[in-house]
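Hi,

I'm pasting everything inline rather than attaching a file, because the server keeps stripping attachments. The sequence lines come first, and each chain or strand is labelled.
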Amino acid sequence: MTDAAPRARRSDATRAAILRAARERFAADGYDRATIRAIAADANIDPSMVMRYYGNKEGLFAAAAEFDLRLPELAGVPTGRLGEVLVRHFLDRWEGDETLAALLRAASTNPGAAERMRAIFADQLGAAVARFGTDPATTARRAGLVASQILGLAFTRYIVGLPPMVDAEPAELVAWVAPTLQRYLTGPVPGTP
Amino acid sequence: MTDAAPRARRSDATRAAILRAARERFAADGYDRATIRAIAADANIDPSMVMRYYGNKEGLFAAAAEFDLRLPELAGVPTGRLGEVLVRHFLDRWEGDETLAALLRAASTNPGAAERMRAIFADQLGAAVARFGTDPATTARRAGLVASQILGLAFTRYIVGLPPMVDAEPAELVAWVAPTLQRYLTGPVPGTP
DNA sequence: GTCTATAATTCGATAGAC
DNA sequence: GTCTATCGAATTATAGAC
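And the predicted assembly:
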């Protein structure tokens, strides 16, 4: 995608406002309940503009759900602190960008969102785990297990709102969960003596 | 609930068929996309019957999402095998009853479903954890952490369909995840020497 | 108890004026 | 580029005949 003329168009501000409103609505209501009309109202523009810029609702979601986990370079992290670094990073990322919540909510009912979620966690997390040098044969499995605990943490804390998970201080969660990720990443494969 | 005349009504079969179809649809499509019309069609009855029996869509979901985790009595389990017993039980429960998947999908977008999920995991799992004798001050937190890993496992395996989690044999998942639950249940509180 | 008919909304998407 | 007007489809829910 080489934009020949990356000169800022006047419509860029509108596009950005739409995406911001879309992320908010998708995060709060999920894919089905988030309506183009409501998103347009939030962005103070006409609903037809959304269609013009993004084609249809799926196109809008695809644009709004673009996401980079911004995983730190795990190769530079002391091996014993991988779990701690990862939990802390994910907690920050969840609370700082609602795109992840939008993806999580939408993935429950929308196949496209689920596919996006698979891609993000398989590609980005998988690559990060691979890069610090585990046995290639177990990399995918380890990354999947890490994803299961991370997404479960997010689901119970931000989506379902399970009281003990909502009330917990981030530091407490890090302390409890870090050893789990640490073992999934660097622990022995169960059944292998 | 003392039914004075628990004599079987002729409509009971219809009610049961509706609930069965509702659980299937809610599990497959989530709350919003699962329509009363489709549920009625699956159950081979008229959509208006659903309304007659359950009032409205929320009432139908509330009836269909009634759920018992059927947790085993943890007090009778060897302390060291608590994690293993729990993961195995939950995996069986997920695959044997789609009500849990319906709840998980619906909880992402429907507040009533999220409340139901909170109740199930706080009450049933919380009670089970309390009954085998942890420090009452940490019981809720331990139960919440267990829920986070269990729900994350279910979310990645049954909802998002993350390949490494879908491909894994149940026994492998048990072996990997059991130590996590074991530590959440019986491990020391982090930061407490 | 069961079904027909339909009310009342709401949504995604399109056509076209300006 | 932006907005008005509207179409066509789908949904929950109700009223009432049989």
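The longest helix of chain B spans residues 136-160.

If the labels don't parse on your end, tell me and I'll reformat.
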